[in-house]
From TrEMBL:
Keyword NADP attributed: yes
Pfam families to which the protein is assigned, alphabetical: Nitroreductase (PF00881)
Keywords: Flavoprotein, FMN, NADP, Oxidoreductase
Signal peptide: none
Protein name: NADPH-dependent oxidoreductase
Higher taxonomy: Bacteria, Bacillati, Bacillota, Bacilli, Lactobacillales
Amino acid sequence: MDNTITDLLFKHVSVRSFTNEVLPDEVVKKLVTVAQAASTASFQQSYSIIDVVDENLREKVTQASRNQRFMNQGGRLFIFCADLNRNNQMAKDLGLDVTQTIEGLDATLAGTIDATLAAQNMVIAAESMGLGVCFIGGVRDNIEEVSELLNIPDHVFPVYGLVIGHPKDKLNDIKPRLPFEAVYHKNQYADKIDIVRSYNIKTNEYYNKRYGKKTDRNWARTAVNSLIKLPRSFMKSYLNSHNLSKH
């Protein structure tokens, strides 16, 4: 059965080259309100979205995020934050103390999940409008600097950025995902590493075609290299300093 929504989802690719065309405010409002329609843990809505519109500020955030230049091209740069501060303020208004809860690991996870669900809603809405998107985990590389630039208070932290704009260049081919059998488990977790190993052959073929030459790159090398290069071992101390994930 044809389904335009699933067709759209299957066509997703990250875009890292945008035109200088700025997204109008009415489009931004539509994207944010669609993001707000996402599921949220216990209706807490523990996230905030920062639209970085000041040019100088956007440049500083870009430089602090591995200086990925496409972040400062056209369109918009949104920073999705896990936000427990709002809930804390509401509790204080009610004369209640929820610090023991919001400063725990589970609340940090809930806020991160809420932000992620909202971000994915925004991505789907943007792509349905013909826009391109790219998540920016690099905002956590210098998270202290980014937090200072964005005036991030206690009980809040930037999870990632999201660039949305009009694609400038031809889109890359869709990357082959892990086989269904590799991610789908029935009743209990099963060891499926052999399936994953065979997948490396397929992804190597993808990269050979993308680069137009023979390469040893595959999914395993790409994933493992990112883990080696980006341990971000400072995240625990950062979260603790913002009174998050303390227990």
